[in-house]
Amino acid sequence: MAELIYREAVAEAIAQEMRRDESVVFLGEDIAKAGGVFKATVGLWEEFGDLRVRDTPISEQAILGAAMGAAMTGLKPIAEIMFSDFLAVCWDIICNQMAKSRYMTGGQVDMPLVIRTANGGGARFGAQHSQSLENWAMMIPGLKVVAPSTPADVKGLLAAAIRDPDPVIFFEQKSLYATKGEVPDGEHIEEIGKAKVVRDGDDVTLIALAMMVPRALEAAERLQAEAGISASVVDVRSLVPLDTQTILSEVRKTARVVTVEENPRLCGWGAEISSIIAEECFYDLDMPIVRITSPHIPLASADELEDIMIPSVDRIFETVRQEVD
Amino acid sequence: MDVLMPQMGETVAEGTLTAWHKKVGDTVSASDILFEIGTDKVEMEVPAQIDGVLKEILVQAGDTVDVGTKLAVIEGSGEETNDAPAPAAPQPETPKAATPAPAQSPVAPLVDRPKRDRSMKLSPVVRKLLTENNLSHTDIVGTGRDGRIKRGDVLAYLKGPASVPSTPAPAEAPGAISGEGITVVPFSYRRKMTAEHMVRSKATSPHVLQAVEVDFSAVNKARQTIGPEWKRREGYSLTYLPFIAKAVCSAIKDFPRINGHIEKDHLVVFDRVNLAMAIDLNFEGLVAPVIRDADLKAVTEIARATHELARRARADELTPDEFANATYTISNNGSFGTLITAPIINQPQVAILSTDGITKRPIVIEHDGEDVIAIRPVGILAQSFDHRAIDGSYSGAFMRRVKEILEGKNWVESIS
Questions:
Q1: What Cα–Cα distance (Å) separates residue A186 from each residue in A48, A76, A105, A172, A189?
Q2: Does the beta carbon of B112 lie under 8 angstroms from any beta carbon of chain A?
Q3: Catalytic residue list contains A188
Q4: Based on the domain organization, do A222 and A319 belong to the same domain?
Q5: B37 versus B169: which is more confidently predicted?
Q6: The model's pTM
Q7: Is there a domain that residue B235 lies in?
């Protein structure tokens, strides 16, 4: 086990897969010589060269259009969209082309590509560079959606995404880029579509994703210490496919559920999970499902306002303490 | 309307539904007998409260449920069926097809949910657990906010404060016996309850029997003095029993531990004597209703109270409260002329006394310094006591005190 930084795990995963499979290529803005604006791809250009690691013009549509063509003709491209907010300009390519090609060709066309993108708030980037947009991708049939919370999951799930024969949107939380964690040595790969119980508890299940996972864990420790509430924490990790088995089993155990979402409230992924729980686990619930989210307004760039809007450890702690009694 | 297990006296927490008099679909009228219930002490017929149709029976005959449990549903004439029938066992494993969500306000809350009052609402899992275990929410003390019942409260209730001491399993029922020369007498509800109580008592308490022989001359003198007038006035004989009861109450003042309840590892001793009187129901069972504060009552009051309890017991008029909180029991077998009876303790009491036949017998007494044979009314008082609570010396001293009082007291004076 070596300790890696979240951003280093990105480069490690890409390098691991580029070494084992020559058809893996990587393209994006400033990803090659500069090593990425978040320094998540340092060293790849040096190791794999101009042909396989390419800087592109500032055109997200060009990046994804090229990646899609490459995927359809036998390569396994990784495309970086610097900020997930910019996915909006690529929506036709993503929603109408990438997601549907396998289905519309009766399975004749593979689409083995990964869109990596820096997602979420907490870094003072303002409303157009801070959105938590997993739900945009989650609602499109034909896409897989992954959002890791730890360096180990970054490496293992990104490697799995690169090997996956279908388009995967891989959301990296930009405020987590500097966080550290143990990562298994050697080749490391995880299975996409498995949630992970990262803390065992009896009284309530906190269901969290990406940056909300460390916050939920910290809140859970405080709940145990200060309120005697034993909280289980589930890291969803993958929204599509969604591991309902793990989620529902935790819910049945604790009978109480709180989702912790960075995204704005309406149509957040927690709403979908709540709906599934209500359908499948209604008779096991001991309190209404509670969702902790950002409010349904564009994210503020002022430090204080951004901190108020995104669920904090304090807010998670207080909400759970009040609801679970 | 819902039909609930009625409260049969303040002290009764549960009852057994012994028989239904109506079937689902039957038309019922208010005051029709709907069902019968029994507690560990009494049986009772319960009439319907409204006219209507019996829609649903939720508790089957033979089941014991807590007071307040929903037993049945009567759809009253003219009453709307507001209550959807209770759902059959829910099947959470099988998701139903999604039903359209009710129309909601288009404006979603900005932040997390507002505070709601859900103090008295039962959550789905609590409802499920209550249904599965045949419980009522009134059985459970909620520890949640504003007394809300949480899943853990139900689970804790089901786990119980302490497991009930296991009673010995009843002997295997012998193969059905039939044929000529045999009559099968089914046990009545009361018979079954008595059987259970007797087995439990014998299994719980190490019984020790002690008996004293009592010369009832002093008592007899009082009976002969006022007996005829009493009989004429009250309509029944003044028996030995109220005198014995009075003597027991007086002796308890000197030996209070006789008047107690055994609870796990300690004895609870009572100031007042609530005297249970075993009353035979003409060979159809036995009940032991209580004379409250018997130690404060005169012999004549005890006589009247005993007579009234017996009359009401045989008329099946006693209520459960009249059986509650007995502290000592007297069983009177004297009318059959028995010599001695070893009674079984009325749990959780410490002791029980049997009075048996009192007959004229030759006994040796001292008269003017000489032993002479006299003819005296003599009877044996026998007490079974629980050796966990007291020892033979204490019980024996108590019995000697009872004997002293019965033989030595000027009963004529105390009664007139």
A1: 19, 22, 38, 22, 10
A2: yes
A3: no
A4: yes
A5: B37
A6: 0.54
A7: yes
